[in-house]
Amino acid sequence: MSRPRRDPRAERQSHDVGATGSRPRYDRSQPLPGRAGVPPIVAPARSGMTTQPQPAKPELRIVDEPAFLVFAVVEAPGGRLSRFDRQVLGAARLLADAGDGGAGVVAIASHSVEGLGEAGADRVLLFTAEAMPGTVAKALRQTVDALSPRHVLFAETGDSADLARRLAIALDEPLLANVEHLTSRQAVRAIRNGRAEIAATPPRLISLGEDRIKPYEAAPCEARALALDTAPHNDDPAILSVEFIPGDPASLALSETDFVVSAGNGVSDFAAFRDLATHLRATPGASRVVCDAGLMPRAAQVGASGTVLSADCYFALGISGAPQHLQGIAGCEHVIAVNTDLHAAMIERAGLAIVQDAQLVMPALLQLLRGGER
């Protein structure tokens, strides 16, 4: 009778939460494969050996009456969870499962979001996206007063970090900001410019640094809509209406945009490239070779010697993928690559690859974006 063999490399990879700079980070507080509902990692069997049957697809995890609640505030731009959002939900799941597993995670967002159940949310509470930050903070405080969560977690970035501080002032409670390490018993953050750190029992209000917690990967949760009248209402008579006006992608800095389409040495028709970027509503970027040649401005250079991106999507046209360029897109969640070289580093990095000449792909995409007109 055969025994399943451990795969140490796969186990180590299961703890990987991403890289900070050039150093990988591992979250050892997460359960090992084979425990707490996490499927075991088994190395492939040798030829002639019998293999263990694959584990069945996990059933939906349902918490009918949570012992307590943990709030996770997510931004989810475009209705999709970012990598940072998944880490916040993973941290909330970690705190909720610290006891007997009967607690619930409530995802709080400003609009409908895909994949909240798979990311670990038992309940979902939506706020109005058009409300002012102060009004959202007031509504969130009313929700905290009504449901009394044990913890409220935020991402230490952008609007989430601002909302965390507004809520801390409204509740007159301390906020442990930019937490670098979190377990059910301890939260650690750096002080004195990283020369020292402080550790404390996780308080109610916590904001997390990026790439500090591993996302939730166990059985999908219910993500049931929470019926609670917490719609933010603007009570300032000076404010007549609130509207979100997106910025022009062509004028946004590469460090501030969510979608970048970038040209490399395989692009020669830059008029078509700029036209494609306009139709995709993406910010144009370029490799160092293109900027050195004067074909794109230096501000458009992507890479370790240019701009390091945190975009949701990076579309590389004719870029082979030099190490410095790959460092610049390490924080991008989705990468699409077009290159004639099947073995190019950018093709390997991409989640979706098109092995073709960029000069042929660009007009074909433009035709589709224009509705099939020639």
Give the arrangement of secondary structure elements.
Elements lengths: L7 H7 L1 E5 L2 E4 L42 E5 L9 H14 L7 E6 L13 E4 L6 H15 L3 E5 L2 H14 L3 E8 L4 E5 L4 E5 L4 E4 L15 E2 L33 E5 L6 H11 L2 E4 L1 H5 L20 E5 L5 H6 L5 E6 L5 H5 L2 E4 L2 H12 L5
Parallel strand pairs: 3-4, 3-6, 4-5, 5-11, 6-10, 7-10, 12-13, 12-14, 14-15, 15-16
Antiparallel strand pairs: 1-2, 7-8, 8-9
Helix pairs in contact: 3-4, 5-9
How does this model look, in words?
The structure is a single chain. With 374 residues, the chain is of the alpha/beta class. It has 2 domains: 11-225, HUPs (Rossmann fold), CATH 3.40.50; 249-369, 3-Layer(aba) Sandwich (Rossmann fold), CATH 3.40.50. Helices cover 24% and strands 21% of the residues. The chain has 9 helices and 16 strands. The protein has helices at residues 8-14, 83-96, 133-147, 158-171, 270-280, 288-292, 323-328, 345-349, 358-369; strands at 16-20, 23-26, 69-73, 104-109, 123-126, 151-155, 175-182, 187-191, 196-200, 205-208, 224-225, 259-263, 283-286, 313-317, 334-339, 352-355. The strands form 3 sheets. A 9-stranded mixed beta sheet has the order 9-8-7-10-6-3-4-5-11, with helices on both faces. A 5-stranded parallel beta sheet has the order 13-12-14-15-16. The protein has a two-stranded antiparallel sheet with strand order 1-2. Helix 2 links the parallel strand 3 (69-73) and strand 4 (104-109). Helix 3 (133-147) crosses helix 4 (158-171). The longest helix has 15 residues, at 133-147. It starts with 7 loop residues before the first helix and ends in a 5-residue tail after the last helix. The mean pLDDT is 84. Belongs to the ETF alpha-subunit/FixB family. Residues 1-55 are annotated as: Disordered. Residues 70-244 form the Electron transfer flavoprotein alpha/beta-subunit N-terminal domain.
